[in-house]
Amino acid sequence: MKMKRILITGAAGQLGTILRETLKPHAEELRLSDITEITDLGPNESFVPCDIADGEAVKSLVEGCDGVVHLGGISVEKNFDLIEAANLRGVYNLYEAARLYGQPRIIFASSNHTIGYYRQEQRLKHTDPFKPDGLYGVSKIFGEAVASLYHDKFGQESALVRIGSCTPKPENWRMLSTWISPRDFTSLIMAAFTAPRLGCTVVWGQSANDMGWWDNSHAAFLGWVPQDNSQDYAEEIRRTVPRPGPEDSVAKYQGGVFTDEPIHQS
Ligand code: NAI
Ligand code: 15L
């Protein structure tokens, strides 16, 4: 199914740049938005500059879209003021705009940092309690909570994708567990947009990794079957990337080095 207009917030970022290419065949138009200008627009792309913290601007952004991929915001640990504006206010603004303009399905880029303080030996279900590893992780939990509220109150459908690490290929030992390929992330987005029912569903954003930590069986009804497996790169990682010590945070906690971050004051 080809969608009419998909909005990608945060389209100038790392994932936005990947998804512009991979989502292109799936929509008549990609409406790209970011605080950073995008100038290399393709024929089916338009750019609308918008600070997601500006509620009125977000309304115009969402109007006329039949699906939203919400990537925009702070993507690493930062001070609370920055996170509050982009990730807390931003996600509220998006859900308010969606409520007013036809409730397009929303793919919310949540994160593994909602559960980053779990040890790597643990295997998680989506119902396990949160264990954020920083204020960034807390902001993603807030986003998931807003999505849940708007589902129960207004019927807004969302996929809450707790993305592991989305890169062209796994880059380190931890990513042998957390990796999601761009191809699998794209097919997940399209499964969430096209499934007969989406509801408000948490999905672990991971490829079919032999060394994965997270159980997606509850989301099988979406019909999403990831095709890639980090195992295909395991030998290369073993050869080229030094193995971290067992007490290094990157080998201990699911959130890796994010657990080493302070509470930033500025
Ligand atoms: P990124 O930092 O490269 O891109 C985020 C984009 O959001 C940037 O282009 C930035 O200009 C934009 N942005 C920041 N503040 C904004 C604001 N107030 N209004 C509008 N746009 C704003 O991050 P990346 O890696 O592309 O990640 C995209 C999303 O996916 C983020 O929400 C991130 O938290 C989430 N995520 C990404 C993972 C990954 O593996 N790359 C893993 C887990 C979650
Ligand atoms: C995230 O949430 C970040 O946005 C991304 O930059 C990566 O650090 C990723 O998690 C990860 O945990 O690898």
- Mean pLDDT across the residues is 98
Q: Helix coverage percent of residues? A: 25-40%
Q: Give Rg in angstroms.
A: 18 Å
Structural class: alpha/beta
Number of helices: 8
How many beta-strand elements?
9
3D shape: globular
Distance between the termini: 46 Å
Detail the poorly predicted runs. Answer: none
Order of helices and strands: EHEEHEHEHEEHEHEHH
Strand order of the largest sheet: 3-2-1-4-5-6-9
Largest sheet: 7 strands, parallel
Percentage of residues in DSSP E strands = 15-25%
Ligand catalogue? 1,4-dihydronicotinamide adenine dinucleotide, D-galactaro-1,5-lactone
Please tell me about this protein's structure.
By secondary structure, this protein is of the alpha/beta class. It contains 8 helices and 9 strands. It has helices at residues 14-23, 55-62, 80-100, 135-154, 175-178, 182-194, 234-240, 249-252; strands at residues 3-9, 27-34, 45-49, 67-70, 105-111, 158-163, 165-166, 179-180, 200-205. Strands 3-2-1-4-5-6-9 form a 7-stranded parallel beta sheet, sandwiched between helices. Strands 7-8 form a two-stranded parallel sheet. Helix 5 (175-178) links the parallel strand 7 (165-166) and strand 8. Helix 3 (80-100) packs parallel to helix 4 (135-154). 1,4-dihydronicotinamide adenine dinucleotide (NAI) is lined by residues 10, 12-16, 34-36, 51-53, 71-75, 86, 90, 109, 111, 163, 165-166. The site of 1,4-dihydronicotinamide adenine dinucleotide has 24 residues, from helix 1, helix 3, strand 5 and strand 7.
